[in-house]
Amino acid sequence: MNIFARLSLSAAAITGVLCSLPAAAHPDDPTQGGTGGRIIRVTTLAKDGPGSLAEALATKGKRIIVFEVAGAIDLEKSSLTITEPFVTIAGQTAPSPGITLMRGGIDVTTHDVILSNMRILNGSNGEPLLSGWEADSFSTVGAYNVVVENNTFLWAVDENMSASGPRFTGDTVEEWREGTSHDIVFRLNLAAEGLANSTHPKGEHSKGSLIHDNATGIVFDRNIWAHNVERSPLVKGGAQVLMVNNLIYNPQHRAVHYNLMDLEWAGHEPVTGEITAVGNVLRGGNDTDENMPFLMLGGVGDLAYHASDNIAVDLHGNPLPAFGRYGNTAAKLIEAPQPLASLAGYDIMPAADVETTVLATAGARPWDRGPQEVRVLYFIAEGRGDVIDSEVEVGGYPTIAPTAAPFVDRDWDLATMRPKNGVYPGQKEGAQEHLSPRDRAMRESR
Predict the structure, then answer these.
(1) Into how many domains does the chain fold?
(2) Mind listing the pLDDT tens digit for each residue in 396-436?
(3) In sequence order, which residues have a C-beta less than 8 Å from that of residue 351 and are 6 or more positions away?
(4) For the domain that residue 200 is a member of, what is the CATH number?
(5) Which domain does 404 fall in, by range?
(6) Alpha carbons 119 and 182: distance in angstroms, whole number
(7) Cα dihedral sign for 399, 80, 162, 339?
(8) How far apart are the C-alpha atoms of 399 and 414, rounded to whole Å?
């Protein structure tokens, strides 16, 4: 099937026309979050205070956060920081149209966290160019055992979804890796339209994902990056990343790239990084540089790299290079014949099937899409869309009418956070059921 035929199928998949998608197995996640803990209900869309998401996140102990309201939570140019471990944030429990965070993002500085089915529309908030507002839409900061699944991250003024933390803690490589983010799973997220020339003080900063130096156990499974200038993802020195069945659309200057920077590692011996990339797709768009490679290598550190069944094509379906460099670098690409991370437990799709599947299943609430997601996903399917400088270029912050509905414990499987009748809030009767791999596997194991 040629790429243009796949585009037609992809557009149909967004609206649920296709038949049910096959189950997609994956290994056990590194955490169960707040499973088994108390239920905390979010009952207000206020930024903070009683009944707010901020209050629920700050509560100590195992907890499952559910929503009895839907609409927009205006963070007013701030970020929510998750500092208390053992929490599940279940955005799927909100009534239609779900929960949207605006003008800010989420940082995780703890462990054992699950975040699912949330929309984060960060944006520049009309602030002046280079004014200093530089929040990530989502980032872990020295966190571990985190699952980020079926979320939508748009309009970041720094990264859209990242795993970060201190570069060097302790005296050994093992201590460095223990001290920064590790064991983070990004699955079925949409990370798109990072703002280019906006409020970030460094200037152009449309970035998809940054995996910071020495972060390990980082998994990208069936995500979509779209319309980011670069970092889809950027893997820094000594980090270890597995990429399975992801879609990268319309990157401008770089898609996947690795860079151990000498200035940042001064006085420390470089550590070889690792990337395993299997069954991924890069599709060029309106902004993509001519002959841009799937993977680019910069800096002074070597990269061990295993690749199989990755597709890279330009806007017209012509092949793009698999590898290239940027800058004057002596870093070596060490090609590994076998995967550098375990693929045990994954039901890996052929790359030719990736686009249709992830357009139907990635992002927040696939059964209850928001207008921003529909626009981005349709444009990917149709080969349209551009890198943007401001959310205003694509309609600006939405006005979302608030709704409310009680969360009824007995109607939900609290181990999987799925409705027992298989119908999510906002899912139209008779519509195709869109399940994440985790949800589908959980259901079929019962």
Answers:
(1) 1
(2) 999 999 999 999 999 999 999 999 999 999 998 655 444 44
(3) 245, 279, 280, 281, 309, 310, 311
(4) 2.160.20.10
(5) 3-445
(6) 24
(7) negative
(8) 32
